[in-house]
User: Fold this.
Amino acid sequence: MSDTRRRKLPPAVLALFLQSLAVSLAVITQMLSQRLSALTFALLCGVLAALFSHLLKMDRWWLPIQLLFVPALLLTLSFSLAPTFFLVAFLVMLVVYWSTFRSQVPLYLSSEKVWQALAGRLPAEPFTFVDLGSGIGGVLTYLARTNPHGHYHGVEAAPLPFLWSWLRVRFAASHNCSVHWGSLWECDLSRYDVVFAYLSPVPMADLWHKARQEMRPGTLFISNTFAVPDHPPHETIATEDLHHSQLYLWRM
Ligand SMILES: C[S@@+](CC[C@H](N)C(=O)[O-])C[C@H]1O[C@@H](n2cnc3c(N)ncnc32)[C@H](O)[C@@H]1O
Assistant:
């Protein structure tokens, strides 16, 4: 793990800390004035949390979340839902998103147009391919079918997507395809001819550093949508999917 990834406080943890600070100040205000209604209390928490987040220069999209968090809690409590509802919702989110609060790489899927563009760009001779953060295994099982002379491997950290992809690979009987549960940062990239990633802007600089250190000369590094800061790709492939996704390619 690189130093930069270790040093930074995850924004979700910072947001939680600022919410706690806002709630503490609202509690003190309530103790002093004894006059705040539940709604005023919740709005005060939200305004303070959003203000602190603005002052600490959190990304702008955090502000409405911070503003509405405690009011939304209040509204939800008014429905008198059973506590097990919250437990189940939490457990489902946990197994789907796992360490997203730290990695800042949630689960979303490459489009079929991206799969097709990838299939058209893979080597003609036998090769090894890895999908770093392989989600539910769509990229792997598609390519294993369209380009069967390749060997495909996926690494996925979140338990439910991993289990789903494992079953998918097993039931698709893809003999040239495998997935394992683990962190992409532990993956030895020197074993692959093509490394594919669809992550987020956050890990790209560190991932580039890892790729440069481990990938063999002449091998291919491909990122869906997210570029590497300060390192223009050698080739870009535009796709015509809903988001006009671009594939960025670097020959190492
Ligand atoms: C945007 S999704 C991409 C899924 C798939 N590769 C695709 O293109 O459809 C990113 C995936 O990376 C996984 N992920 C995030 N950080 C990871 C890590 N450090 N190690 C392994 N997987 C990770 C997430 O759980 C998520 O499933």
